[in-house]
Every structure is written in structure tokens, then in C-alpha cells.
Amino acid sequence: MVDLTKYMKKEVTAAKASKILEFNAFASKIPDIVKFTVGEPDFDTPEHIKEAAIQSIKTTRSHYAPSNGSLELRTAASNFLANKYDQHYDPTNEVIITNGATEAIYSALTAILNPGDKVIIPTPIFPLYIADLTIAGASPIFINTATDGFKLTPAKLAAAIAENGSAVRAVVLNYPSNPTGVTYTQKELDALADVLRDKPIFALCDEIYSELCYETTHASLVHSLREQTILITGVSKSHAMTGWRIGIMCAPFAIANELAKIHQFAITTTSCVTQDAATEALANGQDDALPMRDEYKKRRDFLVSKLSKLGFQCAPPAGAFYLFAKIPAQLNQNDEEFIYDLAKKARVAVINGSAFGPGGEGYVRISYATSMAECEKGMARLKEYVESTSK
């Protein structure tokens, strides 16, 4: 029998499967485990959005939508971005509705990268970008941000571009960040824009957590480098709609026109029903995220307090719903071994920091997209684990 896997695209076989999903599947088999693993809101989609979907079904909205999304949804998305963040995109030709932000990331990287291109990746970072650029035939340039407050600095960005020359085609920025919860100020983004300006380099800005900024207002590279920026967002985190699979990808017309080709060939279009639900979310639920954000902030503050007392030092979590915590020195510093031991002995599941690239070693990511009751139970168990293991 011929082993056809040997003849598949080598970039696909080189891409690594998600360690996060692998560990989450392992942890899910442990009875009564407290899971701080997956970044999925534990809130329900707001009722007015569900009602809009029901009405869409009743009126038989079951045919193909335009490939880039219904004009109603693109207009709602454009208005939402303008009202909330002063980001301005023409809904007729600069906004594409995708199958979640995940598809937007894949479509963008597939469209802009040629084999041999390089992409600057500040780490720790969600590993999806790395897999996608690998499949596209490009290679990552990792910049470890652990010693810079988990933020990419203009100096390190400039150095990476100088060292790699014309091979650099893109830089990926995710803010607020998964896994650290760290975000940028507008001044910091302006400084990065100054390094990138007028260079043939795309800035892929994943702003899916923009509605979950706590003490500061959301800043964006769009304000300082719109002409080179591909903006990615969606309703998954802001409106607790992960399963509805609606993402938003925006770019200047000439770029968006090319991005739309990959989107069209990959999925044709997203479903009319979920588009109608997302239209309602963005048009009439612009502040739906606020009560969720307030609850996340309470959980964040509770967890930071408890973790600090146990010796876990966290990166300053300004947004999203993640804590990136350094494992105390007296515990196992091999973060992968640590999370499996913690899951087996304490029935608490977290993600190892090294899954997010250089700079993540010796850390764990804790998602607080789970109830306060689960947070309290998990911290009580972690306390017992730390006390018993440290003896």
C-alpha cells in the first residue's frame, strides 16, 4: 500500500497540531476538573441576537449571501468600528465577513505570503498564526518579548527587519494579547508604525479582544498605519458568539479586493442566519460586552490576588480574559510537565506557556472565561497543590 501522506504538501505536514487542544482533550477526561484552558466566554449569546437568528430562519434566509457578506452586516460592522474605535472602512469594498477570525487570519496570510517570505512574530503568541504562515510556505522570525513587558519594541522590530531585509513581508500583532492579556497604548503603536511605514510589509492586526479592555481604551495600528494594516476582529468574544463563526476582516480597497479571492475560494460565504444574528449584535448590541467585561474584571482581580499570594507573578493583564503567570521557583519549571501533574493531582487545568513560543517557558496561561465559582474552586485546589508540592 502506498503511503500517500509522504506526497502531501510538505508545508502542511510541517505544521504542528495544536498542543492546546491536545491538552484540553486530555483534561476533559478527568472528572470534576476545573478548566482554565480554552478562551471561550461562559456567557450566553444575548437574547436579542438569538431572536434575530430565529426570525432569519422563519423568513427562510437560507440561500447564498454575497461572498463578502451581506451589505447589512458589512454596514453594521463598519458603523460599529467607526462608533467604537474611530476606524473607518467602506462597507461596500473594504469589509469582508469571514468564518470567524480564524478564517480571516488564514485567508490574510495565504493571500499576502509567497514561499520564502518571512513573518515577524512577537512571542509568546497564539500559535495559530505560526501554523498558517508555515502552510503558506513562509517562515517565522520570532521576537521574544518576555523581557519587554510582553510587547514588541520599535528597536527590536527595526533590528529584525534590518537583519532579514526584503524577505520580511508581514508582522503579526494581537492586542489585547492571547496569551498574556497585555495590550498597547496608541503611542506605542504609533512608534511601531513609524518603523513599518513605507516598507513593503503588511501589519496583520488581530483585535478580536478589543471590547475587553479594562483600564484603558482600545488603541489600534489602524490609526497610524491604515494603508498597510489588515484588521481582523469579530463577534466571538464581544458578544459571546464563538459558535456562530462570524469574523470581520478590513483593509484598504486594493488589498481587500485580493484578500476576498482566498475567502471566496475557501468558503464561498458564511451562512445567512448567522450573518443576520451578527448584524443585530453589531447594530443594536454595541454595548453587549460591557456587563461581561465587568464580570471578567472581577475574576481577573480575584485570580491575580490569589495567584500572587501563591507566588505566581502575572504579566499586567489589561485586556482579554487571560493571565500569563510565572511558575514559582520552588515548583517544576518544565511548564509542560507542570500542567499535566497539576491536572492529575489537583484537578486543575491550565495551558503551558511554552505552547505560545519563545518567552513562554516556565509560565502558564490561565483563562478566566469561566464562572467565579469555578475560579474560587480552582484557586483553592491550586493552593493545596502548591503547599503540598513545595514541602
UniProtKB/TrEMBL annotation:
Residue ranges that the Swiss-Prot or TrEMBL entry lists as coiled coil: none
InterPro entries, A to Z: Aminotransferase_I/II_large (IPR004839), AspAT/PAT-like (IPR050596), NHTrfase_class1_PyrdxlP-BS (IPR004838), PyrdxlP-dep_Trfase (IPR015424), PyrdxlP-dep_Trfase_major (IPR015421), PyrdxlP-dep_Trfase_small (IPR015422)
Keywords (A to Z) from UniProt: Aminotransferase, Pyridoxal phosphate, Transferase
Biological-process GO terms, alphabetical: amino acid metabolic process
EC assignment: 2.6.1.-
Domain of life: Bacteria
Known cofactor(s): pyridoxal 5'-phosphate
GO molecular function: pyridoxal phosphate binding; transaminase activity
Stretches assigned to the Aminotransferase class I/classII large domain: 32-382
Membership in a protein family: Belongs to the class-I pyridoxal-phosphate-dependent aminotransferase family.
Protein name per UniProt: Aminotransferase
Species assigned in the record: Ligilactobacillus ubinensis
